[in-house]
Amino acid sequence: MIAARHLDSLTDPPKVRGWLKTVTLRRASRVLRWKRVRARFGMTNRSEGSEQWLSSPDASPEDRAILHELLATLERLPTDLRIAWTLRNLHEESLENVAELAGCSLATAKRRIAAAEAQLRTELRDD
Fold it and tell me: Residue 103 carries which DSSP code?
């Protein structure tokens, strides 16, 4: 809906895909930040997407446990780290695209991904 309201302002049609990614990323950032604020006040909801994955009949109990642990750990990451890691590892974006979509330099995108991976390794290893 957000994108549809602003389509008429686009002057370069080939750039629509990048623009839509940017709009989506900004919206996702807001949602993740709001979710974190709500969690601090005990107002959490399970994500429909993760519930769907966790209840998939194709997933073994071990797969479900691993996914649950990964999702819980990802939720504890700072939003900027989580977005960079997710774009790179789940959506398989290039480092350049991660930097562009996250609105940061290539070096910052690399640092965020590395920091997220370090935190994930540490937390998943400790559990």
Answer: T
Amino acid at 54: L
Q: Are 104 and 112 in contact (CB under 8 A)?
A: yes
How far the first Cα of the chain sits from its last, in Å, is 41
| Burial class, 101, CB count within 10 angstroms (exposed 0-12 / middle 13-18 / buried 19+) | buried
Could you report the per-residue pLDDT of 68-113, keeping only the tens digit for each?
Answer: 888 888 888 998 999 899 888 888 889 998 898 888 999 999 999 9
Does the 16-45+77-126 domain belong in CATH 1.10.10?
yes
Q: Model's pTM, two decimal places?
A: 0.60
Inter-residue contact 115 to 81 (CB < 8 Å): yes
Whether 106 and 96 have beta carbons less than 8 Å apart is answered as yes
**Domain residue spans of the chain:** 16-45+77-126
